[in-house]
From TrEMBL:
GO molecular function: crossover junction DNA endonuclease activity; DNA binding; magnesium ion binding
Name recorded for this polypeptide: Crossover junction endodeoxyribonuclease RuvC
Alphabetized Pfam families for the sequence: RuvC
General function of this protein: The RuvA-RuvB-RuvC complex processes Holliday junction (HJ) DNA during genetic recombination and DNA repair. Endonuclease that resolves HJ intermediates. Cleaves cruciform DNA by making single-stranded nicks across the HJ at symmetrical positions within the homologous arms, yielding a 5'-phosphate and a 3'-hydroxyl group; requires a central core of homology in the junction. The consensus cleavage sequence is 5'-(A/T)TT(C/G)-3'. Cleavage occurs on the 3'-side of the TT dinucleotide at the point of strand exchange.
Coiled-coil ranges from the UniProt annotation: none
Main location: cytoplasm
GO biological process: DNA recombination; DNA repair
Annotated localization: Cytoplasm
Keywords: Cytoplasm, DNA damage, DNA recombination, DNA repair, DNA-binding, Endonuclease, Hydrolase, Magnesium, Metal-binding, Nuclease
InterPro entries, A to Z: RNaseH-like_sf, RNaseH_sf, X-over_junc_endoDNase_Mg_BS, X-over_junc_endoDNase_RuvC
Positions bound to Mg(2+) 1: 10, 142
Cofactor(s) listed: Mg(2+)
Length: 183
């Protein structure tokens, strides 16, 4: 796997987490993380614009080579699910407009890749992200989820790339089939 900078996004209409990792060699390295905080007094359209502009700014700041984003999970509250999907869309369009290939992962896939258990608690994800990236302290939950998404992609992409390089395209396509790519 060549030198890749991965921007991970944990979307939300109130708070969107982001995490940036460098994948060069064997282990991912921390480059940055945080949360895009929305003013809930503003209209949804204004919050979506903030997500779009903030992701655009992150791309300009970190120069990622690809973006990974958490898929929408369906909750009992339909309005919350729709708002989450809209926030995700704003982030995805910002990444795509900047020329990034956007990869999607389910929360279960992300937790499985980082913790080893698809139903892991947020605290377990925070703990493992801290250990994997050798951080001095735990990142906020949304930032940790975004970093976990980036780590998940780094591991998945690394495996599928290695399989393709070794001529195992049949096996590689089944690994790549676990995520969807939008370009």
């Amino acid at each position: 796997m060549a030198r890749e900078i991965i921007l991970g996004i944990d979307p939300g209409s109130r708070k969107t987490g982001y995490g940036v990792v460098l994948m060069e060699g064997r282990d991912p390295q921390y480059l940055g993380s945080g949360c895009i905080m929305m003013n809930t007094e503003e209209s949804l359209a204004e919050r979506l614009l903030l997500i779009f502009e903030s992701v655009t700014s992150l791309v300009e700041q970190f120069h990622p080579t690809m973006m990974a984003i958490e898929e929408v999970f369906v909750s009992k509250n339909v309005q919350s699910t729709i708002k989450l999907a809209e926030a995700r869309s704003a982030a995805m369009v910002a990444g795509a407009k900047q020329g990034l290939k956007v990869y999607e992962y389910t929360p279960m896939q992300i937790k499985q890749a980082v913790v080893g258990y698809g139903a892991a608690a947020k605290e377990q994800v925070q703990f493992m992200v801290t250990k994997i990236l050798h951080l001095n302290g735990r990142p906020q939950a949304d930032a940790a989820d975004a970093l976990a998404c980036a780590i998940c992609h780094a591991y998945t992409y690394k495996v599928s790339s290695a399989l393709a390089l070794n001529g195992l395209s049949q096996l590689g396509s089944s690994v790549r089939g676990r995520y969807r790519s939008w370009n």
